[in-house]
Amino acid sequence: MTARLIAEIAGTFLLVFGLVGTAVFSAAFPGGDAGNPLGVGFLGVALALGLTVMIGAFAFGPISGGHFNPAVTLGLAAAGRFSWRDVIGYILAQLIGAILGATVIFALAANGPSGFLDSAVAGGFVSNGYDELSPGGFGIVAAIVIEIVITALFLYVILGVTHTRATAGFAPIAIGFTLTLLLLVAIPVDNASINPARSIATAIFGGGDWLVQLWVFIVFPIVGALIAGFSYRFLFDGLKRS
Question: Quick one: which of 46, 70, 158, 173 could link to 183 by a disulfide (CB 3.0–4.6 Å)?
Fold first, then answer.
């Protein structure tokens, strides 16, 4: 179990370090022009998360299963793919990894150009939000719906590509590309959570109103994951007995 928890810490650290680092340092990098921007934008951030999860799943998945996300852990437990008795340990490990990842990015930003850290924190430090804190000005209902839907879809994909009938060895690739796709839809709505540990880690540094709105990005990714987990058993797991 110790090795599994360390793997979850390391994988979640990689996820948050890659996602938040890309969003803070590279998403809107100054310089270039309209036809040749230097920043990676929404697409780059979405790809960063997809790549970090894919790499983490290949590297640490054989040890811990490569959850890196409390919603995934709970969804897998609901689907009967993971032991409920191990859930708390995994979630604590994921929170530690996420907070460490955000802390390293914060420390790097603190050593950036004058005003860089203040600007990153004023923008929420890649936190999730709705209404005036939404990148596109979307309200709380949109944030709730998008988090339930994208997290449920994400869990369905995870459960499908790790099914006993799935082709072995390709699950991390499918999972990574799925995350990239889902982020491209959700970033303009609420900065795309799917992962309560990631949301908690960034809101700690965003502070203020970002912390006030954090509950949405803890509760509703979990709701989506549980819906997917429980319904998957009913809809699809009977295939194992056919």
Answer: 46
pLDDT in tens, 68-112: 999 999 999 999 889 999 999 999 999 999 999 999 999 999 998
- State the Cα–Cα distance between residues 211 and 201, nearest whole angstrom: 10
Q: How high is the pLDDT of residue 180?
A: 93
d(CA 23, CA 31): 16
* pTM, entire model: 0.89
pLDDT at 142: 96
Domains of the chain (ranges plus CATH)? 2-241 (1.20.1080.10)
- Measured distance CA(242)–CA(237) in Å, rounded: 10
Mean pLDDT for 24-32 is 73
Instruction: Provide the phi-psi class of 104: left if phi over 0, else alpha when psi is between -120 and 50, else beta.
Output: alpha
Token output for 2: 């110790």
Instruction: For residue 167, report the phi and psi dihedrals to the nearest 5 degrees.
Output: -70, 125
Measured CA to CA, the distance from residue 51 to residue 238 in angstroms comes to 32
Rounded CA-CA distance 37/29 in Å is: 8
Alpha-carbon distances, residue 130 vs 28, 167, 210 (angstroms): 21, 39, 9
